[in-house]
Each structure stands twice: as structure tokens, then as C-alpha cells.
UniProtKB/TrEMBL annotation:
Name of the protein in its database record: Putative ATP/GTP-binding protein
Lineage start: Bacteria, Bacillati, Actinomycetota, Actinomycetes, Kitasatosporales
Annotated stretches, region: Disordered: 202-232
InterPro entries per record: P-loop_NTPase (IPR027417), TniB (IPR008868)
Tree of life domain: Bacteria
SUPFAM superfamilies the UniProt entry points to: P-loop containing nucleoside triphosphate hydrolases
Pfam families in alphabetical order: TniB
Record field: compositional bias (Basic residues): 211-220
Amino acid sequence: VDTVPVAYVLVPPAATAKSLGAEFARYLGIPVTTRMTTAQITTAVCHTYTAAGVKLVLLDEIHRLNPRTTSGAEAADWLKDITERVGATFVYAGIDVTGTALFSGVRGAQLAGRASLIDCGVLPARHAGSEPFRDLIAAMENALDLHAHRPGSLPRLAPYLHERTAGRIGSLARLIRQAAIEALLNGTEKITRTSLDSIAADHLAEEHYRPRTPTRRRTNTGHPPGRGPRPA
């Protein structure tokens, strides 16, 4: 088994212990059949994750887990067991987790007692002397495969892109991806400020973004009302 230090798993809608286990298995290509029991899937997952050297498990869409339901309670119990049997750090990511049923009830309290809550806001343009948003743009630019694109041109647009996306990573990724697709389709093979302006971002970003237009100075070349030019 190849070494896989990080695993990324999505919590399925209306997750059960078996469907959640199947998602863990799917990430590492562990074959799962409908006839397999939850215990069999769990054994296969624990063995393969340990053999692959998984040290970090990112569990996304955790807000889909509802310990108040019978199936959700079973899934929460399964997750608790898997965290004890796999020697990895588990990171749960979700939306408004404190406002959902995730941490409610006895099983929810067990989950809450095993995790520290980190509130993730938008990515700031500057933080403690660094520029994390610009660094993220540079990393995304390095992943582009556009032959005519000038390296470093996107990081220079960091202030514009931060205003355009409100610092949201998802909005930034979608904007750059769509601009790259357009650059391939129209043959320019590069992303510029002009091409980015022509791309419609997601609704949330567009609601936030309000282009700044310079205010024109008014020049009064006429005469005050009721008064004409002074005769020479």
C-alpha cells in the first residue's frame, strides 16, 4: 500500500454508519459491496488507513451528521470508534456547526468533548506581517497551465481579487478556474485584469463586490445665474 498521509472524506447526506464507512473506504479505493456489514467495512478501513500511514483525516460537511436520528446516532458512534482505532488527527469541517444538531444530545456531547472549535472566517489580505491571500493566489497561479500567462501577474492583482471575492477561498478558486477555462477557449492562454472583469463570480461574491469608480471633478466654466460676462 502506498503512503497516503492525508485523507479527505465527505459526510454523505443522511449519513449512516455504513454509508460513512463506505466513504472512508472509497477514498483509498477499498472495495465495498452491498453484502458487507458495517463491521467488515470498519475492519477494512482501519487496516488500510493504518497501512497507508494516514496521519490526518479531513472530514468535510460534518453538519450533515445528525445524532438525534437513529441512523445519525449510529454514524456518530462509528465515527467515535474510528477515531480511536486509526492513529490520525481528525479535522471536522462544516457550516454553522453550533447551530445544527451536531453537538446535541449525549452523542453530540461526546463529539463536542473530543474537538476544539475553530471559527474560520474569510482569508485576510494581511495578517501578522504576512500576506496569506497573496500567497494563496501565487500557489493557484503556479498550478495554471497557460502558455502565455505571465508568472506573478495574478499576485499583483491581490487587492483587486480580495475585493472581488471578499477573501473567500471558494470564490477565488472558482473565479480563477473560470478565467483559465475562458483563456483556453478563446486562445489567449493568459489571465489578465480585463479577462477577470469579464467573468461573473458566484452570487455571494457578486453581492459583495461593488467596483469603485473615480469621482469626476466638476468644472464650472459658466457664469452665475442672472449675470453675464463683465464688459471690457
